[in-house]
Specification:
The chain is α+β, with helices and mostly antiparallel strands and 505 residues long. It has 3 domains: 3-203, Ribonuclease H-like superfamily/Ribonuclease H (Nucleotidyltransferase, domain 5, 2-Layer Sandwich), CATH 3.30.420; 209-291, no CATH class; 339-497, no CATH class. It is 39% helix and 19% strand. It is built from 16 helices and 17 strands. It has helices at 16-25, 57-64, 75-86, 98-104, 111-118, 128-135, 157-181, 188-203, 209-234, 242-251, 261-267, 273-287, 291-299, 339-347, 367-381, 444-456, and strands at 3-11, 31-39, 44-48, 69-72, 95-97, 205-206, 305-306, 310-315, 320-323, 386-392, 402-407, 412-425, 431-439, 474-479, 483-484, 488-489, 492-497. The strands form 5 sheets. The chain has a 6-stranded mixed sheet with strand order 10-13-12-11-14-17, with no helix packed on it. Strands 3-2-1-4-5 form a 5-stranded mixed sheet, sandwiched between helices. α5 (111-118) crosses α7 (157-181), α9 runs antiparallel to α12 and α9 (209-234) crosses α13. The longest helix has 26 residues, at 209-234. Mean pLDDT is 80; it is low at 355-360, 440-475 and 481-505.
Length: 505
């Protein structure tokens, strides 16, 4: 035996398109249904593994024999699936791929497309995709199908026989493509590159899944909070709805045809009061993207490695590698000097210590200088050594607000930074605010006041905006007293006008 042409039909509850073949085969319910093959270009046989047929010994041996060249269209799929089935990893050295061959010659990557262009198209079963959907994917439980979540051969024997014919037809088509392209062989050096590519894909990339899952959780919390604030400001059921938001803005005198990034930026130049606040919140929601993290979660294997991230000759006109699943070729750049610190905060679940921090200063003309100024402040506030909380019915609280805590009986009299605000409904039907605060207690208030004074003397230049401070005009004093409003509450909140600071983004 010199060559073995192969095509498989499989089942798994894992979404192949989202997760890739490596994760796909790790599903406990993964199985090979049909094994279509041809030895040395001879007649095609289909092994019905789903109905108890066994793989012949000679075929089993050929799969392990590196002197036998195995052919398939998108051979990575067949090789990885068979590795799982045999419980033995099949090296790529003896595998060849008609999809790579087609890509090398600038032909379509799909089996159907390559067959059509080369004139090798065999009469293809029109219902092929429907058959795959019926037998190779989970189905929705219904009264009609007896609440089953999967279709087996016995559920439709006639359709199963057509599925077997479809499997055989694909093997025939693959061999016909080989025959048509025989005069235009892939250079041996390119096959060596393909083998190297497969080894890279098999090895994969190690992912920090704790960081990935915590980042997703952090985003969910952030989006939930931003949406809540927008709902409070607009009274809209779904402030993320473009239609609802456009209508709300129009009702408040701000007409716009679109709410894309450029339009919102332009509207912010003239939007007054709450309108501007709502648009800023919408901007923040638009910035929040965790698609890379969700892609990692979908693709990661049981050993925390993501595999199959590169496709050899994915750009078939140039031969360039193409990214798949996570798209590692277009990861966004960052220039954060404290990136490791931020990662550690997210990994540990300390989301309250992560701030979107801005400084508005026209002397900051470089990213490096802006980061240095911002980090100096954030290091003081992001990881407070002292934490506490109180409950109040007084509204208008925001993370970043400075509060003066006066508790003489407890030896506390200092300025703290509000870290988190949680809103809940009391038994009496009142909105109650749980305020979590913290700080370093090292003259931060004086420092910030001086900074405010200095900043107020400068002209704000949006073209040089890298970071900004947002300043408020209210200081809050918390005193050690009891307030009775339906039931006892541990804190009395007093509001007084003074020169104080709010920090936020």
């Amino acid at each position: 035996m010199r060559t073995l042409s192969i095509d498989l039909e499989t089942f798994s509850t894992i979404d192949l398109a989202k997760s890739g073949v490596y994760r796909y085969t790790e599903s406990p319910d993964f199985e090979i249904l049909l094994f279509g093959y041809s030895v040395d270009g001879g007649g095609v046989r289909v092994i019905d593994l789903a109905r108890g047929e066994h793989m012949p010994d000679e075929i089993y041996s050929a799969l392990l024999d590196e002197s036998v060249i195995k052919w398939a269209h998108n051979a990575q799929f067949e090789r990885v699936c068979l590795s799982r089935y045999l419980n033995q990893w099949l090296k790529p050295n003896s595998w060849r791929c008609t999809m790579v061959w087609s890509a090398y010659l600038g032909l379509p990557l799909s089996l159907e497309g390559a067959a059509l262009v080369t004139g090798a198209e065999k009469q293809k079963l029109i219902e092929g995709k429907d058959l795959i959907r019926y037998f190779s994917m989970p189905c929705k439980p219904t009264k009609t199908n007896g609440q089953r979540t999967r279709n087996l051969p016995e559920h439709d024997p006639e359709r199963w026989e057509r599925f077997k014919a479809y499997n055989a037809r694909d093997v025939e088509t693959e061999m016909a493509i080989q025959a048509k392209l025989a005069s235009f062989p892939v250079p041996e050096d390119e096959w060596k590159n393909y083998i190297l590519d497969q080894k890279i894909n098999d090895r994969g990339i190690l992912l920090d899944m704790t960081l990935v899952r915590q980042a997703i959780r952090c985003d969910e919390q952030s989006r939930s909070e931003l949406t809540r604030v927008m709902q409070e400001l607009t009274a809209l059921d779904n402030p993320n709805s473009v239609a609802q938001m456009k209508s709300w803005l129009a009702d408040h005198g701000l007409e716009t045809d679109t709410l894309d990034k450029a339009a919102v930026k332009e509207l912010l130049k003239t939007a007054p009061g709450n309108l501007g606040r709502v648009l800023e919140l919408r901007q923040k929601l638009a910035k929040s993207s965790i698609k890379k993290y969700t892609a990692m979660e979908n693709a990661v294997c049981s050993d925390s490695r993501a595999r199959g991230l590169l496709q050899f000759y994915g750009a078939n006109r140039t031969g360039r590698f193409a990214g798949r699943l996570i798209q590692v070729q277009n990861l966004p750049q960052n220039h954060l000097s404290d990136l490791e610190e931020a990662r550690n905060l997210i990994r540990s679940g300390q989301f309250d210590g992560v701030y979107e921090h801005y400084i508005k200063d026209d002397t900051l003309t470089t990213i490096e200088s802006a980061e240095a100024a911002g980090n100096a402040d954030l290091r003081e506030w992001a990881n407070p050594k002292t934490r506490g909380s109180f409950i109040t019915a007084v509204p208008e609280w925001e993370p970043g607000q400075l509060v003066n805590i006066e508790l003489p009986e407890r030896g506390v009299n200092a300025v703290f930074l509000v870290q988190k605000v949680t809103i809940s409904l009391s038994e009496a039907g009142l909105w109650i605010y749980t305020i979590e605060y913290g700080g370093r207690l090292l003259g931060i208030a004086d420092f910030l006041k001086a900074l405010v004074s200095a900043q107020q003397k400068k002209k704000m230049n949006d073209t040089k905006l890298i970071h900004k401070f947002v300043y408020g005009t209210e200081a809050i004093a918390i005193k050690d007293a009891l307030l009775t409003a339906g039931r006892n509450r541990p804190w009395l909140v007093e509001s007084c006008a003074s020169s104080a600071v709010m920090i936020g983004g």
